[in-house]
Design brief:
alpha/beta; seven-stranded mixed beta sheet
Length: about 700
C-alpha cells in the first residue's frame, strides 16, 4: 500500500474556502485537489470555461475523454444531463460541451456554471463504490460495495468504522455478496486487492481527519489487476459539530458500577408503607429478597416504613449509601437529586417516567446536568429498576427474581425486561443481573459492558437496545469484553429511515440497520434476530464448551431430521465435516446396513440406546471432530429420558477426561421430549424439542463468538 503522508494543509485550504463561500459541496476541481492531497488516484483532468478550452484540453490529455458539468448547485451530474463519456474526437468534444451546458440550463436555470471538466477516460475494470458518511451513532464510517448506476438497487455494500485498518479494508472486500467478482470470474483477472484496500484506508482516513467532511462518494471506482482509479468524486461538507459527550475513564466506570451492583447501603427516596405504591414495592422487594445491606427509606411524611426507620430527607440518612433508588414523581426528582449529590451518593436509580420519553426533554437535561455537577451516575429514568442476584438485591417494583447464575441481561424497555424475567424463570436460567436502562440519560450499554466484562459472576451478556448513544464507546467496550465472554445484542428498530435525506450514493446506502449490522459484527458481538433468539443464545452459550475447530458431525436417528439439520448448519455459517474413510468405517461398524454413514451419520430410528451411545462416544473420541449435532427420534426402543441420560452421562465422562466439545441436540417426539431437553440443558448439552433450527443456531452463535474472540 502507498504510505505517502497526506497533505492535510492542502485539504484544509480547500475546505475553508468552500465553507467561507457558504457552500456544502466541493466542485469537481476542488475534489480533485483533495484526492490528490491524500494520494487517491483520479484521472487527469482540467476545467474548460469555453468550448475551445475543452478541445485544447482534450487534445492535451489524450482521447478518449469524458466531459462533466462543474456547478456548485448540481450534485447529481448525470440526472442533469451534465455528463458525456467516451468522446474520441474534437468534433465530439465540441458537440458534447454545448449539449451539456444546454441541458444543465434547462435542468436548473439558476445553477451557476463554472465550466466543464475535461477528464481522461478511466481504464476498464470492475466498478465499485467507496465512500464515507457521518453516522449519528457511530460517527465517521466507511462504505465499500459494488458501484455504478445500479448501486442503490443492488445495495451490495458493507461498512466499518473510520479510519479503517488494512485488515478492516480487506474484510470489506470479502464481505459483499459479490466478493467472487473481485477474485476474477469466468477467466477474468482478479483485481489488485492491496490497491483497493489501500484506497478504502485512504478515503476513511480523509473523512476521519476532517470533521467538516460530511460525506465522501467515489462512484464508480474502476478496479482491475493493474490498480484502482476513482472516476467520479463527490464531497459534501457540514458546519455542524456533534456536541461533546461527558466521558468517564474505565477506572471511574468500574468504581461507580461496583458500588451500584455490589452496594452495602441503599436509600429508597419515596419509600411507602402503602400497598400499590411503587415505593412500597421497591421496599418489599429489597427486604423480602434478603438484601443483607442497610435499607434506608426516605419519606418526609413517615417515621417508620415496613419496620425500618424512615428519614425526612436523604441528607439525614446515616453513613454513605452506595445507591439512591427514586420512586417519586418526575417533577420532584431534580430537588431530591441535588440532595443525593450533596450527600455524596454515587448512583441514582431513576424509576419514574415523565422525562424525555414523554417530551420532557428539558427536565431530563436538568437531571443530567445535576448528575454531572455532583458526580452522580444516573440509571434511567423510566425504568423498572435492577436486579443484582449475587448480592440478593432486587431494587425494582416488578416481581422478584433470585436464581443466581452467569447470565447478565439488560433491556431498554420495561416490557422486554419482564419478558426476560419470565423466560429466565421458566427455563431455570440463572442470572447475575437484570438491568433496565430506559431513557439512558447517563449510564448505558458501554458502562454495563465494562462492568460485566470484569464481573466474575457473569459468563455471558445479553442486551436489548433500541439505539446507542455513543456507538464508538460501545464498540470499544465490546472489543474489550468479547475476548473474555460472549456479548449478544438484540437491536430493535431495523429501519432505513436515516438514509432518506442522504445527499450521496453512500449516504443512501447507509441505512440504520445496515450500519448497525456491520459495525456490531466488527465489534465481535453476536446479533440476535429476535427476542427469543437473544434469550436462547444467552441461555445456551455459557453451557457449551468453546469449539477448537470447524469440523461438525451430525448423528441422527431420522434421515429427514439430518437433512434439516444440515440446512441449518449452512444457514448458520457452519459446514459438515468431510468424513475420512477410516472414520466412516468406524461409524459403519455401529449402524445397521440400511443406515447411512457419511455426514450426517444416520443410525435409523429403530436402534437401541447402545447405538446412540457408541456413535456419540466415537464422535467425542475422535480429535478430528470438533462439535456434535444430535438428532433424536422418539421411539419405545430408546425413550426420550433414556436418550437424555445416556447422552449426558457420556458427555460428562469425556469432559472429566478433559475432552470438551460442544454438543447440541434436536429431539422430535411426544411431550416427553420436553423433560428430556431440560435434563440435557442442565447437564451441559444444549437441547430443544420439536425444532432442528434452534440447537444449530445456538451452536452457530457459539462459533461466531469463538471466531470473534480469536479462539478459532
Amino acid at each position: 500500500m502507498d504510505s505517502t503522508e497526506p497533505n492535510q494543509q492542502a485539504v484544509r485550504a480547500v475546505l475553508d474556502a468552500a465553507l467561507a463561500a457558504g457552500r456544502t459541496a466541493l466542485t469537481a476541481p476542488e475534489g480533485k485537489a483533495v484526492t490528490d492531497a491524500y494520494g487517491i488516484p483520479t484521472p487527469a483532468e482540467a476545467l474548460a470555461e469555453t468550448v475551445d478550452d475543452a478541445v485544447a484540453l482534450a487534445d492535451r490529455i489524450g482521447f478518449p475523454v469524458a466531459l462533466k458539468i462543474v456547478s456548485p448547485e448540481i450534485l447529481h451530474k448525470t440526472e442533469a444531463g451534465g455528463v458525456r463519456i467516451g468522446l474520441n474526437s474534437t468534433a465530439e468534444v465540441r458537440g458534447a460541451f454545448l449539449s451539456i451546458v444546454t441541458n444543465v440550463r434547462v435542468y436548473d436555470p439558476k445553477a451557476r456554471i463554472l465550466g466543464v471538466q475535461v477528464q481522461q477516460m478511466v481504464p476498464a475494470g470492475t466498478e465499485v463504490l467507496i465512500g464515507t458518511v457521518t453516522d449519528p451513532t457511530f460517527g465517521k464510517i466507511v462504505a465499500f460495495g459494488l458501484g455504478g448506476v445500479l448501486v442503490e438497487v443492488l445495495k451490495d455494500v458493507t461498512f466499518r468504522l473510520a479510519p479503517a485498518t488494512r485488515d478492516d479494508a480487506l474484510s470489506m472486500l470479502d464481505g459483499i455478496r459479490a466478493a467472487e467478482i473481485l477474485r476474477g470470474v469466468r477467466g477474468g483477472a482478479a483485481v489488485d486487492r492491496e490497491a483497493l484496500a489501500g484506497l478504502v484506508v485512504k478515503v476513511s482516513q480523509l473523512a476521519a481527519d476532517f470533521p467538516e467532511i460530511a460525506e465522501v462518494d467515489l462512484n464508480p471506482v474502476f478496479a482491475s489487476e493493474n490498480g484502482v482509479m476513482a472516476a467520479d468524486v463527490r464531497i459534501l461538507l457540514t458546519r455542524e459539530v456533534p456536541a461533546a459527550r461527558r466521558t468517564y475513564t474505565r477506572e471511574e466506570i468500574l468504581a461507580s458500577m461496583g458500588r451500584l451492583m455490589k452496594p452495602a447501603s441503599v436509600a429508597v427516596i419515596g419509600a411507602s408503607g402503602e400497598q400499590g405504591k411503587i415505593g412500597n414495592s421497591v421496599m418489599r422487594n429489597l427486604i423480602d429478597g434478603g438484601f443483607p445491606g442497610e435499607i434506608h427509606p426516605v419519606n418526609p411524611k413517615a417515621d417508620d416504613i415496613l419496620g425500618r426507620k424512615a428519614y425526612k430527607s436523604v441528607m439525614d440518612v446515616p453513613g454513605e449509601p452506595d445507591v439512591a433508588v427514586f420512586a417519586i414523581p418526575a417533577k420532584l426528582v431534580p430537588a431530591a437529586l441535588e440532595e443525593v449529590g450533596r450527600k455524596g451518593i454515587p448512583n441514582a436509580v431513576l424509576i419514574p417516567s415523565g422525562f424525555a420519553e414523554s417530551g420532557e426533554h428539558e427536565l431530563q437535561a436538568r437531571i443530567v446536568s445535576i448528575g454531572e455537577e455532583y458526580g452522580v451516575r444516573l440509571l434511567g429514568p423510566n425504568i423498572y429498576g435492577y436486579y443484582s442476584t449475587w448480592q440478593d438485591l432486587c431494587a425494582t417494583f416488578c416481581t422478584p427474581y433470585d436464581v443466581k447464575g452467569g447470565v447478565a441481561l439488560t433491556s431498554q424497555s420495561g416490557g422486554i425486561g419482564m419478558a426476560i424475567l419470565g423466560f429466565a424463570r421458566t427455563t431455570r436460567t440463572g442470572v447475575s443481573a437484570i438491568v433496565g436502562l430506559g431513557n439512558k440519560s447517563d449510564l448505558d450499554e458501554d458502562d454495563l459492558l465494562t462492568w460485566f466484562g470484569e464481573d466474575p459472576n457473569t459468563d455471558c451478556i445479553a442486551m436489548h437496545l433500541e439505539d446507542l448513544k455513543d456507538g464508538r464507546a460501545f464498540v470499544d467496550a465490546a472489543r474489550a469484553t468479547v475476548p473474555k465472554k460472549p456479548v449478544v445484542v438484540l437491536k430493535a428498530g431495523r429501519t432505513a429511515a436515516g438514509a432518506r435525506a442522504a445527499g450521496s450514493h453512500t449516504g443512501a446506502l447507509a441505512g440504520d440497520d445496515a450500519v448497525y449490522d456491520d459495525i456490531l459484527r466488527q465489534a465481535g458481538v453476536i446479533r440476535a434476530p429476535g427476542l427469543g433468539e437473544m434469550l436462547e443464545y444467552a441461555r445456551a452459550l455459557p453451557v457449551m464448551p468453546t469449539p477448537r475447530g470447524g469440523n461438525v458431525v451430525i448423528i441422527t436417528g431420522a434421515g429427514g431430521a439430518g437433512v434439516l439439520l444440515s440446512d441449518a448448519l449452512v444457514d448458520n455459517g457452519l459446514s459438515l465435516m468431510e468424513i475420512p474413510p477410516d472414520l466412516d468405517a468406524a461409524f459403519r461398524a455401529f449402524i445397521p446396513p440400511f443406515g447411512s454413514a457419511g455426514n450426517p451419520v444416520d443410525i435409523t430410528g429403530g436402534e437401541p440406546p447402545s447405538t446412540y451411545e457408541a456413535t456419540i462416544r466415537l464422535g467425542l473420541e475422535d480429535p478430528r471432530i470438533h462439535a456434535l449435532v444430535l438428532g433424536y427420534w422418539h421411539t419405545i426402543v430408546t425413550p426420550p429420558m433414556v436418550f437424555a441420560e445416556l447422552t449426558a452421562r457420556v458427555v460428562a465422562e469425556f469432559r472429566a477426561r478433559g475432552i470438551h466439545k460442544p454438543v447440541v441436540a434436536s429431539l422430535a417426539g411426544d411431550v416427553e421430549v420436553e423433560e428430556a431437553c431440560q435434563y440435557l440443558f442442565e447437564r451441559g448439552v444444549v437441547a430443544y424439542p420439536y425444532t432442528t433450527e434452534k440447537p444449530v443456531a445456538a451452536l452457530g452463535a457459539k462459533y461466531r463468538w469463538a471466531r470473534a474472540a480469536g479462539l478459532l
